[in-house]
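Hi everyone,

Forwarding the result from last night's run.
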Amino acid sequence: MGNDTDVSCRTILWGIEMAKTRKILVISHFGVSGELCKRFLMEGNQVKYFIKDKNSKDINDGLIAKVKSWEPHVEWADLIIFDDANFGKQADMLREMDKAVVGPCPYSDKLEMDRDFGQDEMDKAGMTVLPHWAFTSFDEAIDFVQATPGRYVLKPNGIAQDEKCLTYVGKSEDGSDAIAMLENYKKKWATKIKSIHIQQFSKGVEVAIGAWFNGKEFILPACINFEYKKMMNGDVGPSTGEMGTSCLWSHESKLYDETLAKMVPALRASGYSGYMDINCIATKEAIWPLEFTPRFGVPTIWLQMEGIKSKLGDFFEALGTGSKFRLETESGVQICVVVAVSPYPFEDPAAFDKYSKDKEVEFKDPELSGIYLADIKLVDGKFVLAGNSGYACVCVGCGMTFEEAKEEVYKRVKSVSLPDMFYRTDIGHKWNKDRDLLGSWGWL
């Protein structure tokens, strides 16, 4: 696979030629949009798919046909989708050509890559932000914590934030553990971390709220979600991108009014279109927004694909053209669980090549119901691991209650067979407590 001929009408796995409705060019950084391409194809659209990262180019080989470069296909496309940040300049260039675009802009890129700018924009929009500081010197950051002891959250700015294991949430009230982590950054990551964001810690319920923006307004319902970022049960171990998420869809809430809704004027002025998520700490007295995610969430995009009942081709066209849209979603609760192998969550290509490369993945359900393939390709009729991260697949369950969704998602996880795979078995374990607290405080 990977050539530029006859790439838009059929796939090897599903092998069905669909009626043509719209031409969609999907541009991915790390190859997280294969399942979205599959859905577009199944709805009858034509699709051309490009993956930028050289280590991710074999992801979805044999499943979704791809192109070697995206620029030659701009004129062909009716709709162009970028699934990640740091494509803002390219997306704006296409908007200036009057193309329908879903994706970032320079403003949204800066919101995510420069956490201090993001916090300033939250403050400017009228949100209540926690005290925070930015440092370009590790020694200055260490001196600051020593002079003002307390619990702090440490997050690198820029491309270093892609290394999710570098995010640190302090435990010690005297800041000694934060100082030790800063010393570690200085010793081992100085060439990659150019700026560090330090934020005051706050106890409360960690909750995120996201919605899709069409360039003019958010298309509701919003997705209220609870992320599980630690690698192991009980929220311990190294930080990961995310090991799973639970969510519900909401047409109105005070949580939305106090966060996303306040960003509408700035987003409208910027030209942004796409998904926008704000992670927060909620207390009885206030909502403290922590950071922006102005792009597809991972694994949230697959969780949402399972929960959105509308045709995704129609929906994304509305996002790209600034059109109104009635988004139909599942009721109740949704849960997703990440299935992975070594070296995830760490970046170690040598370890992947040694322990996980080309491992075969078997699925008991041939229909792959509720199972979304991530770093997988099809070789000689067999599913095998691709890329170099060990991020294999995401299983999703839905139900009117948390218990129903949990039963369905873990039934699907158990249908996956992959040597040495691991996953958390407690995704959503705080659901009832957190939901009840947010409800009693009036945020839901």
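The chain has three domains: 23-109, 131-200, 205-440.

Cheers,
N.
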